[in-house]
Protein backbone atom coordinates (compact mmCIF):
# COMPACT_ATOMS: atom_id res chain seq x y z
CA UNK A 1 0.00 0.00 0.00
CA UNK A 2 1.43 3.39 -0.99
CA UNK A 3 1.57 6.30 1.44
CA UNK A 4 -1.16 8.16 -0.47
CA UNK A 5 -3.43 5.11 -0.46
CA UNK A 6 -2.77 4.60 3.25
CA UNK A 7 -3.68 8.21 4.07
CA UNK A 8 -6.92 7.85 2.12
CA UNK A 9 -7.77 4.55 3.83
CA UNK A 10 -7.00 5.98 7.27
CA UNK A 11 -9.21 9.00 6.59
CA UNK A 12 -12.08 6.81 5.38
CA UNK A 13 -11.75 4.56 8.43
CA UNK A 14 -11.69 7.54 10.81
CA UNK A 15 -14.81 9.11 9.32
CA UNK A 16 -16.59 5.75 9.22
CA UNK A 17 -15.67 5.14 12.85
CA UNK A 18 -17.13 8.49 13.90
CA UNK A 19 -20.34 7.67 12.04
CA UNK A 20 -20.82 4.07 13.15
CA UNK A 21 -19.66 4.92 16.66
CA UNK A 22 -22.38 7.54 17.05
CA UNK A 23 -20.33 10.73 17.07
CA UNK A 24 -22.28 11.70 13.96
CA UNK A 25 -25.55 9.74 14.08
CA UNK A 26 -27.91 9.27 11.13
CA UNK A 27 -29.46 12.57 10.10
CA UNK A 28 -26.61 14.68 11.44
CA UNK A 29 -24.34 16.82 9.30
CA UNK A 30 -20.56 16.48 9.25
CA UNK A 31 -18.45 19.55 10.02
CA UNK A 32 -17.50 21.73 7.07
CA UNK A 33 -14.52 20.67 4.99
CA UNK A 34 -11.86 22.92 6.61
CA UNK A 35 -12.88 21.66 10.05
CA UNK A 36 -12.59 18.04 8.92
CA UNK A 37 -9.16 18.75 7.41
CA UNK A 38 -8.01 20.20 10.72
CA UNK A 39 -9.53 17.37 12.75
CA UNK A 40 -8.02 14.66 10.56
CA UNK A 41 -4.76 16.42 9.73
CA UNK A 42 -5.15 15.89 5.99
CA UNK A 43 -5.71 17.97 2.87
CA UNK A 44 -9.04 18.92 1.34
CA UNK A 45 -8.40 16.51 -1.51
CA UNK A 46 -8.06 13.60 0.90
CA UNK A 47 -11.24 14.58 2.76
CA UNK A 48 -13.19 14.93 -0.48
CA UNK A 49 -12.09 11.53 -1.72
CA UNK A 50 -12.90 9.94 1.64
CA UNK A 51 -16.38 11.46 1.58
CA UNK A 52 -16.90 10.16 -1.96
CA UNK A 53 -15.96 6.68 -0.76
CA UNK A 54 -18.46 6.81 2.09
CA UNK A 55 -21.15 8.17 -0.21
CA UNK A 56 -20.59 5.15 -2.46
CA UNK A 57 -20.92 2.84 0.55
CA UNK A 58 -24.21 4.47 1.58
CA UNK A 59 -23.04 6.12 4.81
CA UNK A 60 -23.15 9.70 3.57
CA UNK A 61 -25.02 11.90 1.14
CA UNK A 62 -23.99 15.32 -0.10
CA UNK A 63 -25.83 18.27 -1.57
CA UNK A 64 -25.50 22.03 -2.05
CA UNK A 65 -28.07 22.89 0.62
CA UNK A 66 -27.72 19.96 3.02
CA UNK A 67 -23.95 19.68 3.27
CA UNK A 68 -22.56 16.25 4.04
CA UNK A 69 -25.24 14.34 5.91
CA UNK A 70 -25.16 10.91 7.55
CA UNK A 71 -27.59 8.49 5.95
CA UNK A 72 -30.01 6.24 7.89
CA UNK A 73 -28.55 2.83 8.72
CA UNK A 74 -31.03 1.29 6.30
CA UNK A 75 -29.10 3.00 3.48
CA UNK A 76 -25.70 1.63 4.51
CA UNK A 77 -24.42 -1.02 2.14
CA UNK A 78 -24.25 -4.09 4.36
CA UNK A 79 -23.02 -6.12 1.40
CA UNK A 80 -19.78 -4.14 1.60
CA UNK A 81 -17.17 -5.92 3.79
CA UNK A 82 -15.83 -2.57 5.02
CA UNK A 83 -19.26 -1.55 6.29
CA UNK A 84 -19.60 -4.89 8.11
CA UNK A 85 -16.22 -4.35 9.78
CA UNK A 86 -17.08 -0.78 10.80
CA UNK A 87 -20.45 -1.78 12.22
CA UNK A 88 -18.95 -4.46 14.45
CA UNK A 89 -15.96 -2.33 15.44
CA UNK A 90 -18.45 0.19 16.83
CA UNK A 91 -20.06 -2.45 19.05
CA UNK A 92 -22.35 -5.42 18.55
CA UNK A 93 -26.05 -4.91 19.10
CA UNK A 94 -28.52 -7.77 19.43
CA UNK A 95 -30.31 -7.01 16.16
CA UNK A 96 -27.08 -7.02 14.14
CA UNK A 97 -25.89 -10.24 15.77
CA UNK A 98 -29.23 -11.91 15.12
CA UNK A 99 -29.13 -10.86 11.48
CA UNK A 100 -25.59 -12.21 11.02
CA UNK A 101 -26.60 -15.58 12.45
CA UNK A 102 -29.74 -15.57 10.28
CA UNK A 103 -27.62 -14.90 7.19
CA UNK A 104 -25.19 -17.68 8.06
CA UNK A 105 -28.11 -20.06 8.59
CA UNK A 106 -29.36 -19.11 5.14
CA UNK A 107 -26.25 -19.65 3.02
CA UNK A 108 -23.87 -21.97 4.89
CA UNK A 109 -26.13 -25.05 5.32
CA UNK A 110 -27.17 -24.69 1.67
CA UNK A 111 -23.53 -24.36 0.65
CA UNK A 112 -22.68 -27.56 2.51
CA UNK A 113 -25.57 -29.37 0.86
CA UNK A 114 -24.26 -28.37 -2.57
CA UNK A 115 -20.69 -29.21 -1.56
CA UNK A 116 -21.74 -32.75 -0.63
CA UNK A 117 -22.97 -33.16 -4.20
CA UNK A 118 -20.27 -31.28 -6.10
CA UNK A 119 -17.01 -31.31 -4.14
CA UNK A 120 -13.99 -32.56 -6.05
CA UNK A 121 -11.12 -34.53 -4.57
CA UNK A 122 -9.14 -31.28 -4.35
CA UNK A 123 -12.02 -29.59 -2.53
CA UNK A 124 -12.20 -32.39 0.02
CA UNK A 125 -8.43 -32.24 0.51
CA UNK A 126 -8.59 -28.49 1.18
CA UNK A 127 -11.39 -28.98 3.71
CA UNK A 128 -9.38 -31.69 5.47
CA UNK A 129 -6.27 -29.52 5.52
CA UNK A 130 -8.19 -26.64 7.08
CA UNK A 131 -9.66 -28.96 9.70
CA UNK A 132 -6.20 -30.36 10.47
CA UNK A 133 -4.92 -26.80 10.92
CA UNK A 134 -7.78 -26.08 13.33
CA UNK A 135 -6.99 -29.19 15.36
CA UNK A 136 -3.29 -28.27 15.40
CA UNK A 137 -4.11 -24.75 16.58
CA UNK A 138 -6.12 -26.15 19.49
CA UNK A 139 -2.92 -27.97 20.49
CA UNK A 140 -0.95 -24.74 20.28
CA UNK A 141 0.43 -25.07 16.76
CA UNK A 142 -0.69 -22.24 14.50
CA UNK A 143 -3.38 -19.53 14.37
CA UNK A 144 -6.87 -20.87 14.98
CA UNK A 145 -8.68 -17.92 13.44
CA UNK A 146 -7.04 -18.32 10.03
CA UNK A 147 -7.72 -22.07 9.98
CA UNK A 148 -11.38 -21.66 10.97
CA UNK A 149 -11.98 -19.05 8.26
CA UNK A 150 -10.26 -21.31 5.73
CA UNK A 151 -12.46 -24.24 6.76
CA UNK A 152 -15.69 -22.33 6.18
CA UNK A 153 -14.59 -20.67 2.95
CA UNK A 154 -13.37 -24.04 1.67
CA UNK A 155 -16.83 -25.49 2.24
CA UNK A 156 -18.46 -22.71 0.26
CA UNK A 157 -15.90 -22.97 -2.54
CA UNK A 158 -16.71 -26.68 -2.78
CA UNK A 159 -20.33 -25.76 -3.56
CA UNK A 160 -19.14 -24.52 -6.98
CA UNK A 161 -21.80 -21.83 -7.06
CA UNK A 162 -20.86 -18.67 -8.95
CA UNK A 163 -23.05 -16.45 -6.75
CA UNK A 164 -21.39 -17.75 -3.59
CA UNK A 165 -18.07 -17.03 -5.29
CA UNK A 166 -19.12 -13.47 -6.12
CA UNK A 167 -20.17 -12.92 -2.50
CA UNK A 168 -16.91 -14.33 -1.15
CA UNK A 169 -15.58 -11.02 0.29
CA UNK A 170 -18.88 -10.39 2.11
CA UNK A 171 -19.11 -13.96 3.36
CA UNK A 172 -15.53 -13.84 4.61
CA UNK A 173 -16.16 -10.56 6.45
CA UNK A 174 -19.25 -12.00 8.15
CA UNK A 175 -17.43 -15.18 9.11
CA UNK A 176 -14.53 -13.22 10.58
CA UNK A 177 -16.86 -11.27 12.83
CA UNK A 178 -18.94 -14.27 13.85
CA UNK A 179 -15.92 -16.46 14.62
CA UNK A 180 -14.18 -13.73 16.61
CA UNK A 181 -17.30 -13.40 18.76
CA UNK A 182 -17.96 -17.11 19.24
CA UNK A 183 -14.46 -18.60 19.58
CA UNK A 184 -12.88 -16.83 22.53
CA UNK A 185 -10.25 -19.28 23.74
CA UNK A 186 -8.76 -22.76 23.38
CA UNK A 187 -11.53 -24.51 25.32
CA UNK A 188 -14.22 -23.02 23.09
CA UNK A 189 -12.33 -24.01 19.96
CA UNK A 190 -11.78 -27.55 21.24
CA UNK A 191 -15.47 -27.93 22.00
CA UNK A 192 -16.40 -26.89 18.45
CA UNK A 193 -14.02 -29.31 16.71
CA UNK A 194 -16.45 -32.29 16.75
CA UNK A 195 -19.11 -30.09 15.13
CA UNK A 196 -16.69 -29.11 12.37
CA UNK A 197 -15.65 -32.76 12.00
CA UNK A 198 -19.27 -33.78 11.51
CA UNK A 199 -19.68 -31.27 8.68
CA UNK A 200 -16.53 -32.42 6.90
CA UNK A 201 -17.44 -36.10 7.29
CA UNK A 202 -20.95 -35.59 5.91
CA UNK A 203 -19.61 -33.78 2.85
CA UNK A 204 -16.98 -36.46 2.24
CA UNK A 205 -19.72 -39.10 2.52
CA UNK A 206 -21.82 -37.22 -0.07
CA UNK A 207 -24.56 -36.86 2.53
CA UNK A 208 -26.20 -33.60 1.46
CA UNK A 209 -28.93 -33.61 4.11
CA UNK A 210 -26.52 -34.64 6.84
CA UNK A 211 -24.07 -31.90 5.90
CA UNK A 212 -26.84 -29.30 5.91
CA UNK A 213 -28.00 -30.33 9.38
CA UNK A 214 -24.44 -30.56 10.71
CA UNK A 215 -23.67 -27.00 9.60
CA UNK A 216 -26.90 -25.76 11.12
CA UNK A 217 -25.92 -27.33 14.45
CA UNK A 218 -22.49 -25.73 14.18
CA UNK A 219 -23.90 -22.23 13.60
CA UNK A 220 -26.49 -22.53 16.37
CA UNK A 221 -23.71 -23.73 18.66
CA UNK A 222 -21.71 -20.64 17.75
CA UNK A 223 -24.67 -18.47 18.73
CA UNK A 224 -24.84 -20.23 22.10
CA UNK A 225 -21.11 -19.62 22.57
CA UNK A 226 -21.60 -15.91 21.86
CA UNK A 227 -24.44 -15.71 24.39
CA UNK A 228 -22.40 -17.63 26.97
CA UNK A 229 -19.41 -15.31 26.69
CA UNK A 230 -16.27 -16.20 28.61
CA UNK A 231 -12.66 -15.02 28.83
CA UNK A 232 -10.99 -13.96 25.60
CA UNK A 233 -7.50 -15.20 24.71
CA UNK A 234 -6.41 -13.06 21.71
CA UNK A 235 -3.06 -14.84 21.55
CA UNK A 236 -4.72 -18.19 20.93
CA UNK A 237 -7.09 -16.84 18.28
CA UNK A 238 -4.38 -15.21 16.16
CA UNK A 239 -1.63 -17.65 17.05
CA UNK A 240 0.60 -15.21 18.90
CA UNK A 241 1.64 -16.23 22.38
CA UNK A 242 2.68 -13.72 25.01
What does this protein look like?
Residues 237-242 have low confidence and may be disordered. This protein has helices spanning 3-20, 33-40, 44-56, 81-89, 94-118, 121-138, 144-157, 162-166, 168-182, 186-204, 208-228, 234-238; strands at residues 60-63, 67-70. The protein folds into two domains: 7-75, Winged helix-like DNA-binding domain superfamily/Winged helix DNA-binding domain (Arc Repressor Mutant, subunit A, Orthogonal Bundle); 93-229, GntR ligand-binding domain-like (Four Helix Bundle (Hemerythrin (Met), subunit A)), CATH 1.20.120. The protein is mainly alpha-helical.
Topology, element by element:
Elements: H1 3-20, H2 33-40, H3 44-56, E1 60-63, E2 67-70, H4 81-89, H5 94-118, H6 121-138, H7 144-157, H8 162-166, H9 168-182, H10 186-204, H11 208-228, H12 234-238
Antiparallel strand pairs: 1-2
What structural class do helix, strand and pairing data support? mainly alpha
One letter per element, helices H and strands E, the order comes to HHHEEHHHHHHHHH
The largest sheet, given as strand count, sense and whether it forms a barrel, is: 2 strands, antiparallel
Mean pLDDT: 88
Strand arrangement across the biggest beta sheet: 1-2
CATH topology of the largest domain: Four Helix Bundle (Hemerythrin (Met), subunit A)
Outline:
elongated
Radius of gyration: 21 Å
Task: Please tell me the CATH architecture of the largest domain by its name.
Answer: Up-down Bundle
